Amino acid sequence: MNHAWRRAVAPLVGLLAGGSFLYFAFRTISVETVAASLAGGHWFPAAPAILLGVAVFIGAKARRWRTLLGDPADLPTATLISPVAIGLLFNSLVPHSGELARAVTLQRSQGLAVSGVLMGIAVERLFDFLTVLVFGLVAGGYTEVPPGLVAPLRLLGVLSLGLGSAVLMALLMPGVLSRIVHRLTAWWPARPRHWLQHQVAHALAGLKPLRAAHRLPQAFGWSAVQWASVVWCIYFCAAVPGFTLSTAMSALVLIAIVVIFTLPNAPGYLGSTQVAFLAVLVPLGVGQEQALAASFVYTLLAVVPMMLAGAVALLLGGRRPTLRAAHGASPPNTRG
Questions:
Q1: Is residue 44 a part of any domain in this protein?
Q2: Residue whose C-alpha is closest to residue 183's, from 174, 192, 193
Q3: Which of 201, 215, 297, 319 has its CA at a distance of 20 to 30 angstroms from the CA of residue 175?
Q4: Any domain includes 286
């Protein structure tokens, strides 16, 4: 398979998945019915509230990232909003491409090593999974968990355990990991061997801020703010077609969104968002038409503004290619 085909596979699979999800969503409901529900919807004050939630989400995500980067004095949170928005844009086009786009954007503007930044982003995923899992467990104490959501909750638990174990090992035994890499690559040609060892050193350096104990609760706190803002958005999405969600039900929709967004998706998560709302809300007694209408409100007022923010950041972004190690310091000697 040539390079062009490899680049086309992910978007193609995403389009097929999104189309399948949309077909599933509309198999018993007409487009006209949902459109009429939205046309007669109660957009105020729901729309401003959702846009506020989007702004809080981006801001909290940037602030958490700054915490994981070590709070460097020359890297304020405002500087990180642009790469965060760009990452959200790329993720909405091709799932999981946003992490690399965010790291490369920060490297170009601030000179931070991509491998070190990517390690910090991997830790972000751990906080994401843990926070959403906690939200789900708390929500399950207040409302029934739909049967279709039990497996995703277990998956989040498994992912949290696996990723948490890997991060803990890298934090506690960086020298061991470094020696393992050196031994495994000892027979490689010099150029790729030195490149990989260099990247591993930067990646381990990217975990250095987490060795400060106060950063862990800070990062988790900002994760809670970040994902609570999405629960807020989902809650107000229901107000447009005229029904009310409890906070617990909104949190369960969040879990479905997080899980399904990890799969191949059409641009803007079209189809996936609709299935997430339907899969949670219909078993909890919400009508299909109402659940589907609320899902399109989320697409229009949460997903699309994030994409627009990323597009603006991409157009306005500049480059400053001076390379420095993560957190402004040279990678530590992790061989000892």
A1: no
A2: 193
A3: 215
A4: yes
Confidence at residue 162, expressed as pLDDT on a 0 to 100 scale: 84
Can you tell me the distance from the alpha carbon of 167 to that of 31, in angstroms, rounded to the nearest whole number?
Answer: 46
Tokens representing 171 are 């934090």
Measured between alpha carbons, how far is 207 from 224 in angstroms, rounded to an integer? 21
Q: What is the mean pLDDT of each run of 10 residues along the chain (336 residues)?
A: 54 75 82 92 96 98 90 78 94 88 84 76 87 92 90 84 79 78 84 78 71 82 97 98 96 94 88 95 95 97 97 77 41 39
Residues 6+ apart with CB under 8 A from 263: 17, 95, 272
Q: Provide the token pair at 134.
A: 């906690």
Three-class SS state of 286: coil
Q: What global pTM score does this model have? A: 0.85
Residue with tokens 């995923």: 125
Of 329, 326, 331, the C-alpha closest to 110 is 326
The answer as to whether 43 is a domain residue is no
Q: Which helix (H) or strand (E) holds 294?
A: helix 288-298
Identify the three-state secondary structure at position 187: coil
Q: Which domain holds residue 212?
A: 57-317
Those residues with Cβ within 8 angstroms of residue 316's Cβ, 6 or more apart along the chain or in another chain: 82
Q: How many domains does the chain have?
A: 1
SS3 assignment, position 41: coil
Whose tokens are 């994902």? That residue is: 227
> What pLDDT is stored for residue 88 in this prediction?
96
Query: What span, in angstroms and rounded, lies between the C-alpha atoms of 51 and 301?
Result: 6
